[in-house]
Amino acid sequence: MLSIKSLDEIVIMKEAGKILSLIRKELLKFLKVGISTFDLDMIAFDLMKKNDVISAFKGYQGFGGYSCISVNEAVVHGLPSKTRILKLGDIVTLDIGIKHKGYCVDSAWTYSLGSVSNKIKQFIENTQKSLFLGIEQVKPGNKISDISRAIGKFGNKHNYGIIEIFSGHGIGKKLHEEPYIFNFDFVL
């Protein structure tokens, strides 16, 4: 069920979003060739402690990491590993979720380590463009399906495969709340 947030809840979630942004920016300083995804995750954990927040992911449905770090072919929810050492040309998605004053926020960002092909650069840029096209549809009178349609249409235009079992989602006291925003056109 969709939960309408109070002004006080929105203020807390904005605070959490600012903290999450600071953690991500600090973590980026360590996103380099030669680091393991486990070590990167432990740095994320230290940054969470430093900012007096806890991981929203650790223990969630049995997940073992403090953050999700997906490399190359891993679409989402990559489990940090001591044996996964980042190398030049890797595509890395940092998905970080935190709990602050009882509220969860999370975000995922994708980066390339060093030079990558123009095709991969374009893919990363286009996935971000599709996100913004979806956000443009968030306005009075529009439906969730308008957001999904904008994202899916752009992805299909570029012949990208759409992973239909994952979606964007609302945030709040739970990590995943309604509304769920799919990346493809659908009809209910």
From TrEMBL:
Keywords: Aminopeptidase, Hydrolase, Metal-binding, Protease
Domain annotation Peptidase M24: ranges: 13-182
The protein's Enzyme Commission number: 3.4.11.18
Pfam families on file: Peptidase_M24
Binding note for cofactor: Binds 2 divalent metal cations per subunit. Has a high-affinity and a low affinity metal-binding site. The true nature of the physiological cofactor is under debate. The enzyme is active with cobalt, zinc, manganese or divalent iron ions.
Reaction(s) the record says it catalyses: Release of N-terminal amino acids, preferentially methionine, from peptides and arylamides
Coiled coil: none
Single GO molecular function: initiator methionyl aminopeptidase activity
GO biological processes: proteolysis
GO cellular-component term (any): cytosol
Listed Gene3D superfamilies: Creatinase/methionine aminopeptidase superfamily (3.90.230.10)
Top EC class of this enzyme: hydrolase
Cofactor: Co(2+); Zn(2+); Mn(2+); Fe(2+)
Family the entry assigns: Belongs to the peptidase M24A family.
Protein's job: Removes the N-terminal methionine from nascent proteins. The N-terminal methionine is often cleaved when the second residue in the primary sequence is small and uncharged (Met-Ala-, Cys, Gly, Pro, Ser, Thr, or Val). Requires deformylation of the N(alpha)-formylated initiator methionine before it can be hydrolyzed.
PANTHER family for this protein: METHIONINE AMINOPEPTIDASE
Record's protein name: Methionine aminopeptidase
